[in-house]
């Protein structure tokens, strides 16, 4: 068992802050040593200090980012957001937007953008729409593209959606679901670091930026939110996590419902 010294921990804090903007508090020391322990073995290094010296270069740097990010998510998380979106698309201010464009800006393993895509397939039959999912972690994006999940993640599915939009695994795939090809093909995944200038993604009617701001310092939150809002159309909606807030982060959007903000039309 390798020991992570306080000095090495500070270097990991600096590494993930510079790479992703993530602030790891001192309470996260056990998490860092636990998540990286296997990599020391895989890379055949004898200490966390030696492992740190590998993080200057491409591949291991991405692996360390993958391991130090928290990717917890599930389908139709915070169902009120999806109810709100349904209402706006079918009868509210987003009715008639063509194509309707939605960005899941920290999409993790894909449950969030696929939930959005299922809702749009349901509400906008035959109409054009785009969903883009982005994340800093290459590992979660790979899992997202596969669209293959454990059935444990289905408790928030709206009635009928599982049958309509997913295939249930049989035999060796028992206990799993595969998002149907028609839905998978509509969602594009891309690696994007929100802590850097954004690539060209176009502009969006709705942006989900949920459960990622909590990992950022106030200064990083401000920069990330400003960047993200530059891609939100006037009159568009920004969703954040229910435990997050934009107080003192920006006044460019107005709070209209819990964790839902709107840019002036
Ligand atoms: C807890 S998950 C949230 C997933 C989903 N939005 C939800 O609410 O269920 C947070 C995600 O943010 C990603 N993340 C962390 N820092 C990031 C950054 N600088 N740029 C892009 N994504 C980042 C992580 O890789 C992780 O997948």
Description:
This protein is an alpha/beta fold and 265 residues long. The chain is built from ten helices and ten strands. The strands form two sheets. It has a seven-stranded mixed sheet, with helices on one face. A hairpin with a 2-residue loop joins β9 and β10. α5 packs parallel to α6. It is globular, with a radius of gyration of 20 Å. The model has no long low-confidence stretch (mean pLDDT 95). The structure holds S-adenosylmethionine.
Largest sheet: spatial strand order: 6-2-1-7-8-10-9
Bound molecules: S-adenosylmethionine
Class computed from helices, strands and strand pairing: alpha/beta
Order of helices and strands: HHHHHEHEHEHEEHEEHEEE
In short:
The chain is an alpha/beta fold.
List strands and helices in order, with pairings:
Elements: H1 6-20, H2 29-42, H3 48-52, H4 58-68, H5 79-90, E1 100-104, H6 111-123, E2 129-135, H7 138-146, E3 148-150, H8 161-165, E4 166-168, E5 176-179, H9 181-184, E6 187-191, E7 204-209, H10 218-229, E8 232-240, E9 253-257, E10 260-263
Helix pairs in contact: 5-6
The structure holds S-adenosylmethionine.
The site of S-adenosylmethionine has 24 residues, from loops.
Spell out the key features of this protein.
7-stranded mixed sheet, 19% strand, alpha/beta, binds S-adenosylmethionine, 3-stranded antiparallel sheet, 265 residues
């Amino acid at each position: 068992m390798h020991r992570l010294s306080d000095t090495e921990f500070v270097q990991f804090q600096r590494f993930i802050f510079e790479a992703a903007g993530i602030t790891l508090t001192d309470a996260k020391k056990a998490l860092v040593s636990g998540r990286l322990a296997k990599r020391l073995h895989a890379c055949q290094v004898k200490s966390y200090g030696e492992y740190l010296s590998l993080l200057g270069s491409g591949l291991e740097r991405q692996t360390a980012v993958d391991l130090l990010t928290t990717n917890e998510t599930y389908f139709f998380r915070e169902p009120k957001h999806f109810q709100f979106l349904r209402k706006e698309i079918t009868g509210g201010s987003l009715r008639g937007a063509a194509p309707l464009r939605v960005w899941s800006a920290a999409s993790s393993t894909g449950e969030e953008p696929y939930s959005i895509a299922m809702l749009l397939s349901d509400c906008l039959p035959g109409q054009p729409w785009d969903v883009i999912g982005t994340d800093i972690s290459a590992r979660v994006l790979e899992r997202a593209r596969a669209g293959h999940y454990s059935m444990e993640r289905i408790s928030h599915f709206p009635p009928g959606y599982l049958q309509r939009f997913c295939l249930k695994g049989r035999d060796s795939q028992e206990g799993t679901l595969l998002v149907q090809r028609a839905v998978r093909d509509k969602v594009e995944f891309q690696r994007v670091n929100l802590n850097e200038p954004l690539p060209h993604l176009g502009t969006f009617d709705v942006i989900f930026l949920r459960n990622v701001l909590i990992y950022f310092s106030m200064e990083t939150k401000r920069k990330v939110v400003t960047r993200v809002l530059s891609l939100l159309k006037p009159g568009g909606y920004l969703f954040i996590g229910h435990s997050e807030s934009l107080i003192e982060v920006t006044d460019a959007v107005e709070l209209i419902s819990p964790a839902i903000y709107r840019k002036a039309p």
